[in-house]
Specification:
Blueprint: H1 2-13, H2 33-58, H3 62-75, H4 84-115, H5 121-138, H6 142-152, H7 165-204, H8 212-226, H9 229-240
């Protein structure tokens, strides 16, 4: 929740505690340059609030979690169980759990000093985004990041702080997709073995008209319950983030 609350606090803090932003839809001439700056700030804030859900999903662990849970459902042969709402909710709550230390660091080092008027907006943004940037760098493959530098024909960064967010975010998402598919492949293997064994047994018994999924599905469910699959997958997923 701190991730979304941080953006809201940023928008309120731009105008101080005693001065709330006022949106005036009337057309009139600007008498002071500060009025123009505040108008631009309001537009930026509204844009950020609209894009906030997408931005938060792109720079957090949500992508990997969502894909792995979807592949798990397919590997077990379940169509709509658990439903999409449950998978999305589980992915969101685990994202909050994983990203809480980074959000807390962003809150303490970026937002609180800005609200106390100790640092400027630019410095607050840099310090606020740095924990998330460090998280993305740790979980981004070097070759994926180099790919976007080659596409944009830019020189390699001299240090981590020089990496631009416009290049880091897509590289991070590609790395997350690859990692999620690798984990999904490992999840598929034991269930695939069960399907092959059940199909072979049915063919040897001459029961070729009986769909193997009718026999393999309950066996896969029992197997998943015996090994405590949810705890095993969630625990390893949480530990897979560096």
């Amino acid at each position: 929740m701190k991730l979304i609350l941080s953006l809201i606090i940023f928008s309120i803090a731009l105008y101080g505690a005693d001065e709330a932003p006022m949106i005036n839809l009337s057309v009139s001439a600007l008498e002071e340059p500060e009025q123009f700056v505040k108008t631009i700030n309001i537009l930026i804030i509204l844009t950020l609030l609209v894009l906030a859900p997408s931005l938060l999903l792109m720079i957090t662990s949500f992508t990997r979690l969502m894909i792995v849970f979807s592949l798990l459902r397919q590997a077990m042969g379940l169509q709509q169980t658990p439903p999409n709402q449950i998978i999305i909710s589980l992915s969101l709550i685990l994202t909050i759990f994983i990203m809480e230390p980074y959000a807390k660091k962003s809150w303490d080092e970026g937002i609180i000093p800005y609200m106390d008027k100790k640092i400027s907006y630019t410095v607050a943004f840099e310090k606020g985004i740095k924990p998330f940037k460090d998280f993305m760098i740790k979980n981004t493959r070097e070759k994926d990041l180099a790919l976007f530098y080659r596409i944009k024909k830019e020189e390699n960064p001299k240090n981590i702080d020089d990496i631009a967010l416009t290049l880091l975010v897509p590289a991070f998402m590609i790395s997350e997709l690859k990692t999620a598919f690798e984990i999904g492949f490992l999840i598929f293997l034991p269930f695939l073995v069960i399907d092959i064994i059940i199909a072979s047994i049915l063919m040897s018994l001459g029961m070729m008209m009986l769909p193997p999924v009718m026999i393999s599905l309950p066996i896969k469910l029992i197997f998943f319950i015996i090994i405590d699959g949810w705890a095993l997958i969630i625990g390893n997923l949480a530990q897979s983030f560096k």
